[in-house]
Amino acid sequence: MQITIRGHHLTITPAIEENIRYKFADMTKHLDQVNSMQVKLTKDHQLDKRSKKGSANHIAEAIIRLPGAELFAQASADDMYTSIKRLTEKLKRQLHKHRKMQQVYQPLAV
């Protein structure tokens, strides 16, 4: 499985990269069909007019390519690690739903 990690307005530190690889490997360990994964981390530099702080400005997006399907999720938070955690939770739900759909539509062996 190939994981591509990109940063937009953000440098990818080894700690962030290790965190992503660990969480995604744990998430897809029971699914061998994953062709590729793309993760894009973005830091938005817009400030809130009232508080003068950026709120939910760390954005994590991911695309997981499976045979016949493509899963996409996006999460944002005040901290990059929190947004990665929220992203993996969303993708876990999608993968679980995808696996259930595959089990329902399995052709019967004759």
From TrEMBL:
Sequence similarity: Belongs to the HPF/YfiA ribosome-associated protein family. Short HPF subfamily.
Pfam families the UniProt entry points to: Ribosomal_S30AE
Originating organism: Acinetobacter chinensis
Signal peptide start-end: none
Gene3D superfamilies linked to this entry: Ribosome hibernation promotion factor-like (3.30.160.100)
UniProt keyword list: Translation regulation
This protein's name: Ribosome hibernation promoting factor
Subunit structure: Associates exclusively with 100S ribosomes, which are dimers of 70S ribosomes.
